[in-house]
Amino acid sequence: MGETQSRRWPYFYMVAVGVLISTMDSSMINVALPSIMRSFSTSLAVGQLIVLVYLSVITSTLVLWGHLSDTYGKGKIFLFGVLIFAVAASGASIAASFPQLVVMRCIQGVGAAMMMSSGPAIIKIVFPPDQLGRGLGLVGLATSCGLMSGPLISGLLIRHFSWRWVFLVTLPLSLSVYILGHFYLGLDKDEKCLAAKRAYDWVGSALWGTAVLLFIVLISFYEAMGSKMISLNLFGLLSVIGLFSRYERQALNPLLPYALFRRRYFATASITAALSFTVLFMVILLMPFYLDYVLELPADRIGLLMLTLPSSLVIVSPAAGWIYDHIGARLPATVGLGISCFSVMTMTGLHEETPIIAIVIALSALGAGQALFLSPNSASVLAKIEERYIGVASGILATSRNLGMLIGAGLSGAVFSFVFALLSGGRNLHGFQASDVPEFLSALHWTFSLAAALSLAGCLLSAFRES
Question: Are 75 and 1 contacting, i.e. CB atoms less than 8 angstroms apart?
């Protein structure tokens, strides 16, 4: 990219707005999910498909787009992603059936993956090494703004209009990003590619995508499966994962380069990122249901309460980047995960009379911990990685985060639905009644206890990362 140093802020704006619209979309859908489920009369296990398919497409294709951005240009991939995301959002807003909505969410996931895979790499290029933490911290601020504005906007739109409007609100931003990037920056024209001749691992990509698909099927449709089908699906999932791992060790150009994962700093950052986002999405998916079904709050108040989590992200993210620039990643990342663990532990005590202020404090603490972890963790990798691996490393980090989101959303829905059905005699949230509140709370406590255990594991692993 020509003149990147002198024009870093326009480039930063492009990446920041791309991050903003993708994260805003995710946070709006989480608040809208109860309304969408009612609209299409689905259970939680099926309704969460609109979250899971979006995350699964991102998780399956992020590394692919990272490779292609190294080959064809990060700007090209980024801008095409913006266009695809906008078109799919328009389609989702007019979906006449639940399957149509699921398809549009898949296409949206493709666009989001293209933006996510190339965005951090663009930041790496346009910011000098001594300001990389600052740049990533500011991108974290954009992430926070998307997460922060999404719940509030979603709640207001649902209260006064319909859940369909949540897909339309990002369209003006998407259009402005493409116009600015294409006509002013020429983001898709002038980039030199350092890895144009590198082959892509199509077999590994197919195995990885198959594993993600089998996971989605298992998590979403286990209620309709018998024990034999569940066992068969699980066996297939584990077999594909084993084949993928074995093939990747022997591939000349592996999808997930084992040479990178043998580096302790890279492996630690990737695993802790996945664990962190697993915990985050377990809370984000289920908390709106608690606020809706148990506390019986209207959609706009639910959005306002969910706003507290990303609000603390907004406050802490810039400071986290500054702290990394001065003392490195180990301390802020580990402390951040510790704070997150403590906040989730407090959520295992939620009940019918929990004060609103207690919920605000718990969500704020979770957001602050995530912010303190995120940018130092990413910077610890991008600051050390070679130039030829920037796109791949950026894609793998984003894959780790989105794999965590996928596992968190799927695991929370599956564990909650299983425990709730077990305690309520086979019922699900589609037929929820006030008498089901005790069973709801028990299922919620079990799920959040699992989230707290995963957060503790991430904290302990981070404590042993390289300085």
Answer: yes
Task: Decide if 304 contacts 155 (C-beta within 8 A).
Answer: yes
**Measured between alpha carbons, how far is residue 415 from residues 9, 26, 235, 312 in Å?**
44, 21, 19, 28
How many angstroms separate the CA atoms of 219 and 222, rounded? 6
| pLDDT score of 450 | 93
Does residue 187 contact residue 79 with C-beta atoms inside 8 Å?
yes
Q: The tokens of 56 are what?
A: 């699964």
Instruction: Output the pLDDT for position 184.
Output: 64
Q: What is the pLDDT of residue 398?
A: 72
CA–CA distance, 179 with 215 (Å, rounded to integer): 38
Structure tokens at 118: 């190339």
Its pTM stands at 0.74
Q: What is the pLDDT of residue 386?
A: 67
What is the C-alpha to C-alpha distance for residues 99 and 93, in angstroms, rounded to an integer?
Answer: 13
Distance CA 248, CA 63 (A): 13
Distance between CA atoms of residues 168 and 165, nearest Å: 5
Q: Could you report the average pLDDT of every consecutive run of 10 residues in the chain (467 residues)?
A: 57 78 79 82 76 82 75 78 89 87 90 80 69 65 71 81 85 82 60 53 82 79 73 87 84 74 80 89 87 84 81 76 72 86 91 90 89 79 69 72 81 84 76 80 92 90 76
Say if residues 139 and 16 touch (Cβ distance below 8 Å): yes
Query: Closest Cα partner for 329 from 461, 455, 465?
Result: 465
Angle at 367 between CA 296 and CA 340, to 5 degrees: 100
Q: Where are the domains of the chain?
A: 8-200+253-463, 201-252
d(CA 453, CA 344): 9
Q: DSSP letters of 377-416?
A: HHHHHHTTS-GGGHHHHHHHHHHHHHHHHHHHHHHHHHHH
Q: Which one-letter DSSP state was computed for residue 429?
A: G
The H or E element spanning position 359 is helix 356-382
CA 387 to CA 376: how far, in whole Å?
Answer: 19
Architecture of domain 8-200+253-463: Up-down Bundle (1.20)
Judged by DSSP in three states, 153 sits in helix
In whole angstroms, give the CA distance from residue 185 to residue 179: 9
CA distance 142 to 316: 12
